[in-house]
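Lecture notes, continued. The same structure-token format from the folding unit now serves as the input rather than the output. Read the line below as a description of shape only.
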């Protein structure tokens, strides 16, 4: 989703949006988020722990879902209004018209991805889940894998199995902007490097994958 369907990443914006509406005092903690990102870059913490710590700082470790969701929905409206690539939206509409089942697979949290996907008309979401995904409180803990890199492909395969989709009988188009999605792109019948960063652009040229640049 991030930088494929959207112009920019959604996770940091989500944290700031919710903190600003639920507990503005937490915004003074944002420099700690930057420090945690640096800790991730130098491999002191994992990507999964980075997401958990950032959420605990900016939203809280344990937040009542009923109080959180109105701000999640308003954030989805904000993304729809300000952060969508028109070319991506047009491609989504074209793929739907061509009879494809639309699945949004992303490392972002299902918590806020599903409202965005619903607005875009996706049929299903494969995303990073919270440990308390279906409970009254949202905890700053990830359930299972972060939906990223090879983990994303494993989660896609698991979703297909849950839907009784036979890979041999499926025709898959996949879009991504980032080289971490190379396993997913290799799994697809028709992979697209969409607005790729340089490492993916190089890989796409080597593999003969189609490049698309959406406005």
């Amino acid at each position: 989703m991030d930088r494929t369907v959207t112009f920019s990443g959604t996770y940091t914006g989500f944290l700031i949006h919710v903190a600003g509406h639920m507990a503005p005092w937490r915004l003074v903690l944002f420099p700690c988020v930057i420090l945690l990102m640096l800790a991730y870059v130098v491999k002191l913490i994992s990507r999964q722990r980075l997401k958990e710590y950032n959420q605990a700082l900016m939203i809280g470790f344990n937040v009542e879902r009923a109080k959180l969701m109105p701000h999640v929905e308003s954030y989805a409206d904000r993304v729809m209004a300000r952060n969508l690539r028109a070319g991506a939206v047009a491609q989504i509409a074209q793929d739907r018209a061509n009879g494809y089942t639309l699945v949004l697979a992303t490392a972002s949290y299902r918590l806020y991805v599903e409202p965005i996907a619903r607005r875009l008309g996706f049929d299903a979401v494969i995303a990073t889940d919270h440990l308390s995904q279906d409970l009254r409180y949202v905890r700053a803990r990830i359930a299972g894998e972060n939906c990223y890199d090879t983990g994303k492909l494993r989660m896609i395969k698991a979703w297909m199995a849950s839907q009784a989709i036979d890979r041999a009988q499926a025709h898959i188009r996949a879009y991504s902007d980032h080289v971490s999605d190379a396993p997913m792109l290799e799994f697809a019948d028709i992979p697209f490097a969409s607005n790729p960063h340089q490492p993916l652009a190089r890989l796409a040229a080597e593999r003969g994958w189609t490049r698309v640049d959406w406005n």
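Point for the exam: The chain has one domain: 10-212.
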